[in-house]
Design goal:
By secondary structure, this protein is an alpha/beta fold. It is built from seven helices and 17 strands. Helix 1 runs parallel beside helix 7 and helix 5 packs parallel to helix 6. It is elongated, with a radius of gyration of 21 Å.
């Protein structure tokens, strides 16, 4: 849909329409706060593209990601949230209002919530996208329990790769840790990793890169790796990739909104950014736990803080 006329000033514009923004919109719209969400990709975010979510409270048997995202969307719309497709390229502080550029057109808002989330860095190899959620994963706490007594490959030699490999030993019978060059994790983690290597729970493959993820009948059963120019296959039941996050904050390049060293948005205790009246919540926020449950909670918290902010503008 086209952006609203620039003569209209919305109470709050939310950038992104994942679980964080949808939850926030449920709270704002129930209080008659005029709310519009702009989403450039998929309503529901990463949650909507996740095959099965097994750690969201209230669903004893788990819930398909698309089902959860659709329910959140319907609930927000029922209370009056407007959800439109559009890409935001800038936020400018105009004093009494913020000007958000959506698909090249200006939109005015008294407050803004940035909830664009983060995306996992990808390997970019054959099979990775095809088997996402069905043997290829980026979250050990979300999906590790599916692999009890199974063999896994973990890709990554930084802190997150080593931490998650160690965590997955709670479930998997064996972990093959694939490291492109050398282990870059902290010395404390390296010493902890050594204990699992000595116990035979983890095998570390240095100077090794995965080149393809393979499956039989749609079920991942091997990962092809290259070491010293030679390729061979490892038999695995799943592949977990931990090579960093890519925050969806590219549109803030050159903005006064402060980011941390990896591009996540810095906020105060009220989830407000360095631009007055602009808030950030969920996986795009520095310090976020990268879990759907906490993202939903932050959305609610942001909404309540935005209501307080808007009340202050009326005084």
């Amino acid at each position: 849909m086209a952006a609203k006329s620039k003569s209209v000033t919305r109470d709050v514009v939310m950038i992104g329409a994942g679980p964080t923004a949808l939850s926030a919109a449920i709270y704002t719209t129930r209080e008659d706060i005029d709310t519009v969400l702009y989403e450039k990709a998929v309503i529901g975010g990463l949650a909507a593209t996740t095959d099965q979510i097994d750690n969201y409270p209230g669903f004893a048997e788990g819930v398909p990601g698309l089902e959860l995202a659709t329910s959140l969307e319907k609930q927000a719309v029922r209370f009056g949230a407007a959800i439109e497709y559009g890409e935001v390229s800038a936020i400018v502080n105009k004093g009494d209002y913020k000007e958000i550029t959506v698909d090249g057109s200006p939109v005015k808002a008294r407050a803004v919530l940035i909830a664009t989330g983060s995306d996992y860095n990808k390997l970019g190899i054959p099979g990775e996208e095809a088997y996402y959620g069905r043997g290829v994963h980026y979250c050990a706490t979300c999906d590790g329990a599916f692999y009890r007594d199974k063999r896994l490959a973990v890709v990554g030699g930084g802190n997150s790769g080593v931490q998650e490999a160690i965590f997955l030993t709670r479930f998997a019978s064996h972990i093959d840790l694939l490291v492109r060059s050398s282990i870059k994790a902290s010395l404390v983690l390296q010493h902890e990793l050594e204990q699992y290597v000595k116990a035979g729970q983890i095998t570390v493959h240095l100077a090794t890169s995965p080149t393809e993820i393979l499956a039989i009948d749609g079920k991942v059963n091997r990962v092809r790796i290259e070491t010293s120019g030679k390729q061979h296959d490892l038999e695995v039941d799943g592949v977990f990739v931990f090579i960093g996050l890519k925050p969806n904050t590219q549109f803030l390049a050159g903005s006064p909104i402060e980011l941390d060293e990896i591009g996540l948005i810095k906020t105060d205790a009220k989830l407000q950014t360095s631009m007055h009246g602009v808030y950030a919540a969920g996986d795009v926020r520095s310090g976020a736990t990268m879990q759907i449950a906490s993202a939903v909670g932050e959305g609610a918290t942001a909404a309540l803080n935005i209501r307080e902010y808007l009340d202050g503008l009326k005084r």
